DNA sequence: GCCTGGTATCC
DNA sequence: GTGGATACCAGGCC
């Protein structure tokens, strides 16, 4: 990483990766119209394009084995002798791959009598000596020996797109030996794919142990007589084999190469040649992925992140002495097997300290632990909640979270996707962070550990976080969101972390009963559906097949049009049922229902962790309006409307050591916010009076006394009221209510004649947003909506509906977040053991400890009520029970 | 094996 | 031709 200024050399083992691609993609799905198989070409090219795009190498080569033998098969004719004959569909794809390489202007290299690996080894050495960063891509484990501080191996885990990064640390973690010692280990263990048998009874663990004890294979062989045990005996009986293995698995680093390193410089692809080759191979989507690599279409490559000096010696003491605002980075992971293995800290942008948590003394442990737990030391992280979990798993408390550059970046522009550190650095600083694992969750274990020291990477990242904070936090302030950031989102991080950590207890037995029932119901409905078709077993889960059955075979009337034909969604099927009743439709709907349910239940059952609880992950940086999101599993879309939904919610129970679940939800929060923001006197009055809102509105709209509002009137105004906040049109309202458009329009007119300020508000909020470029919630959260000035009608209409909705949905999100902070503070201040476990947009769920139920109910009511000072009261409904369903009533 | 679209659930 | 999400499945990729 430090040598990146000299460039990056990408070296690919052509055949080994082509083979992986061949077996990863079904050959029958990939062929030209003339029957030429292309799955390996497709997979290999996709992989290479991704590597070129992500790593932006300055130099590239793809090495090939040539047909016929090598010096190894001369030495040992049986070498690689167990390999099955290559499938006939593979062979013809190799020249095609070379054609693609030609179009990409990537040099293909080979050498008679040698393997591709020897070429990789030689070029890796040359690149290393030239001070380059080298990436070797190979599915051959022998290449592990090439790994060092500057040479990383990308090894396919499955397919060709999921590549594991083998750095020296990663090799040590997986195999227990240094990369240079891997051939020693392989010589002892053997390599089936090369037809090299190992020492019977010696596996990687024993081999690694011996290598540790005797310092390597040579030492082992010299002391073979002293090696104890049955394994030692076995070793002595196979010395020759081991020597031979070691001889053969050594890769040559000193070949004479026909193409000098300098000629591997990558000039970018040839657009015309890409078109030609994609035409010939009938690649459609790939063309679009390859064309950006063409030089003609090229743009300046991003700047590489500046080198950061990361010190590791004495890091604990140095970090513990930091008292100002410190940027922190935790290398670790969340989830069931959460752990942290390295820590980086920076209080200057170009210098940082890194700590490998594996080699801490007990004193270091407690020094660092105390520093982390000190709430007075302000820490800024990128994705602080992840760090919190990783450190918590290691038994440390993280306090003093004062900033989160991920959240800052979100507030600055919440509509963007991708808030990983790499992406944010790129977006806001134009910096390319090298060796970043593809954006994802926490980094995987194998990606951990920098090239030289586990703390290296963490330190570098901490320094980057510090730079980022210096840029993003002022932007947050400039946009008037300083308070929202520091007083709402940042303190909320810890609340959410605790909620995730607590999780929700689940009644597994109940869940599995439900799963069985739903599965049985789905199966029965499926059989009914097949019967209705005269026994044909179409795939009921395939919209494509359903379209064929419904609209062609059964000749049913067409439903609403979608991209791929005609819709088969539930509402369309219900419509069809009325127009053209058929037992198939009934059975299909029943099957949809039951299979969806069974799938939900199954997912939940699988999500139960060993502690008997489900731990979701909340995100503050997904929903552009400021709502939280929940995933893995999503606990914010558990069914609730139906009887079956109720039974699922019964599976969420109070956990051991606790007494009850209490739920509290805001009553009609969005309508109240609309009343507040619009200042509509009639609407404010309705809420102030505490009447049934829809009855009140109905009486005004229809001009009858409240007690004379019929259920139908009530449901019509209810749909209208809710639709308003979403930008509902008269057309949409008509559809939803099953009215003629004219009637729906008349209803809207009547509505607005009584609640005119609402209409004025909705208009003004869009106008304001168009003028300012953004919308704003009651608490100053912004959402930028550039499409409001789009000349494209459809985009503009969508933007207008977003502008209409964002302040309402966003203010509701702000309110409940404020309430959550209040609830958390009260629980702590009052020394209660009860805890928040779930938020579902307008609802909070608390698990209460014995004797605390009344106190908790009061806290919920008071804090949710006091979360905002609106011109209408914030009403809260509270329920209690041993499970979520009971509590929710 | 990855990506997209359709369908489903929630507020 | 109502906003904001997440999850699963099938099918296309050629």
UniProtKB/TrEMBL annotation:
It is an enzyme of class 2 (transferase). Transmembrane segments: none annotated. Residues 645-852 form the DNA-directed DNA polymerase family A palm domain. SUPFAM superfamilies: 5' to 3' exonuclease, C-terminal subdomain (SSF47807), DNA/RNA polymerases (SSF56672), PIN domain-like (SSF88723), Ribonuclease H-like (SSF53098). It catalyses: DNA(n) + a 2'-deoxyribonucleoside 5'-triphosphate = DNA(n+1) + diphosphate. Coiled coil: none annotated. InterPro entries: 5-3_exonucl_a-hlix_arch_N, 5-3_exonuclease, 5-3_exonuclease_C_sf, DNA-dir_DNA_pol_A_CS, DNA-dir_DNA_pol_A_palm_dom, DNA/RNA_pol_sf, DNA_polI_exonuclease, DNA_polI_H3TH. The keyword Amino-acid biosynthesis does not apply. It holds the Pfam family DNA_polI_exo1. It comes from the Bacteria. Residues 5-267 form the 5'-3' exonuclease domain. Keywords: DNA damage, DNA repair, DNA replication, DNA-binding, DNA-directed DNA polymerase, Exonuclease, Hydrolase, Nuclease, Nucleotidyltransferase, Transferase. Its EC number is 2.7.7.7. Belongs to the DNA polymerase type-A family. In addition to polymerase activity, this DNA polymerase exhibits 5'-3' exonuclease activity. This is DNA polymerase I. It comes from Demequina sediminis.
């Amino acid at each position: 990483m430090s040598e990146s200024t000299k460039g990056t050399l990408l070296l690919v083992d052509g055949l080994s990766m082509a083979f992986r691609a061949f077996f990863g993609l079904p050959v029958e799905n990939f062929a030209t119209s003339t029957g030429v198989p292309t799955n390996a070409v497709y997979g290999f090219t996709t992989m290479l394009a991704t590597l070129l795009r992500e790593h932006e190498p300055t130099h590239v080569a793809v090495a090939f084995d040539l047909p016929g033998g090598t010096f190894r098969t001369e030495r040992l004719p049986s070498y690689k002798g167990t390999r099955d004959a290559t499938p006939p569909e593979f062979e013809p794809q190799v020249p095609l791959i070379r054609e693609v390489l030609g179009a990409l202007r990537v040099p293909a290299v080979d050498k008679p009598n040698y393997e591709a690996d020897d070429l990789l080894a030689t070029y890796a050495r040359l690149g290393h000596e030239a001070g380059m960063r080298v990436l070797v891509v190979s599915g051959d484990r022998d290449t592990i020996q090439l790994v060092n501080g500057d040479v990383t191996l990308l090894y396919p885990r499955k397919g060709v797109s999921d590549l594991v990064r083998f750095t020296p640390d990663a090799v040590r973690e997986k195999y227990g030996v240094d990369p240079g010692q891997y051939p020693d280990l392989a010589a002892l263990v053997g390599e089936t794919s090369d037809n090299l048998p190992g020492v019977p009874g010696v596996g990687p663990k024993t081999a690694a142990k011996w290598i540790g004890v005797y310092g390597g294979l040579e030492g082992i062989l010299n002391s073979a007589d002293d090696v104890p045990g049955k394994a030692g005996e076995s070793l002595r009986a196979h010395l020759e084999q081991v020597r031979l293995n070691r001889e053969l698995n050594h890769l040559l680093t000193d070949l004479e190469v026909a193409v000098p390193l300098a000629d591997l410089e990558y000039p970018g692809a040839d657009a015309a040649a890409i078109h030609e080759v994609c035409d010939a191979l009938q690649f459609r989507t790939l063309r679009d992925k390859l064309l950006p690599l063409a030089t003609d279409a090229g743009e300046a490559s991003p700047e590489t992140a500046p080198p950061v000096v990361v010190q590791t010696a004495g890091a604990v003491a140095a970090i513990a002495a930091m008292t100002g605002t410190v940027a922190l980075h935790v290398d670790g992971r969340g989830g069931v097997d959460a752990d942290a293995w390295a820590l980086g800290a920076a209080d200057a942008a170009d210098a940082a300290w890194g700590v490998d948590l594996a080699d801490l003394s007990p004193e270091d442990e407690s020094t660092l632990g105390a520093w982390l737990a000190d709430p007075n030391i302000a820490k800024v992280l990128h994705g602080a909640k992840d760090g919190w979990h990783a450190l918590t798993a290691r038994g440390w408390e993280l306090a003093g979270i004062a900033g989160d550059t991920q959240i800052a970046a979100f507030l600055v522009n919440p509509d963007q996707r991708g808030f990983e550190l790499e992406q944010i650095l790129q977006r806001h600083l134009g910096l390319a962070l090298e060796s970043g694992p593809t954006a994802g969750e926490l980094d995987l274990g194998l990606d951990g550990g920098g090239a030289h020291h586990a703390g290296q990477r963490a330190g570098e990242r901490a320094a980057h976080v510090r730079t980022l904070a210096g840029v993003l936090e002022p932007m947050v302030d400039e946009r008037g969101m300083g308070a929202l950031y520091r007083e709402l989102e940042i303190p909320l991080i810890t609340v959410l972390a605790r909620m995730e950590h607590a999780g929700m207890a689940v009644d597994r037995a109940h869940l599995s009963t439900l799963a069985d029932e739903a599965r049985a119901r789905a199966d029965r409905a499926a059989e009914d559906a097949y019967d209705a078709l005269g026994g044909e077993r179409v795939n009921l889960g395939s919209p494509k097949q359903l379209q064929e059955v419904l609209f062609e075979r059964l000749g049913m009337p067409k439903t609403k049009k979608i991209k791929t034909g005609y819709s088969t969604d539930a509402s369309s099927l219900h419509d069809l049922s009325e127009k053209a009743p058929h037992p198939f439709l009934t059975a299909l709907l029943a099957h949809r229902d039951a299979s969806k349910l069974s799938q939900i239940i199954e997912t939940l059952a699988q999500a139960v962790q060993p502690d008997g609880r489900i731990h979701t992950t909340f995100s503050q940086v997904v929903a552009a309006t400021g709502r939280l999101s929940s995933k893995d599993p999503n606990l914010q879309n558990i069914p609730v409307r139906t009887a079956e939904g109720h039974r699922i919610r019964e599976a969420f129970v109070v956990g051991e050591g606790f007494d009850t679940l209490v739920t509290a939800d805001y009553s009609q929060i969005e309508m109240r916010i609309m009343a507040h923001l619009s200042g509509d006197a009639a609407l404010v009055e309705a809420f102030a009076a505490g009447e049934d809102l829809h009855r009140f509105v109905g009486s005004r709209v229809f001009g009858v006394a409240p007690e004379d509002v019929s259920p139908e009137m009530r449901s019509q105004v209810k749909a209208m009221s809710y639709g308003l906040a979403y930008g509902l049109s008269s057309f949409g309202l008509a559809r939803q209510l099953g009215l003629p458009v004219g009637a729906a329009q008349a209803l809207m007119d009547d509505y607005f004649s009584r609640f005119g300020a609402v209409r004025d508000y909705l208009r003004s909020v869009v106008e304001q947003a168009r003028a300012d470029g953004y919308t704003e919630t009651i608490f100053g959260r912004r959402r930028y909506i550039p499409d409001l000035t789009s000349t494209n009608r459809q985009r503009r209409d969508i933007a207008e509906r977003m502008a209409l909705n964002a302040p309402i949905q966003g203010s509701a999100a702000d309110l409940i977040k404020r309430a959550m902070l209040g609830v958390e503070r009260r629980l702590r201040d009052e020394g209660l053991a009860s805890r928040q476990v779930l938020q579902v947009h307008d609802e909070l769920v608390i698990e209460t400890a014995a004797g605390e139920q009344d106190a908790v109910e009061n806290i919920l009511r008071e804090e949710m009520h006091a979360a905002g000072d609106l011109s209408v009261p914030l009403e809260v409904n509270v329920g209690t029970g041993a499970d979520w369903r009971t509590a929710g009533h």
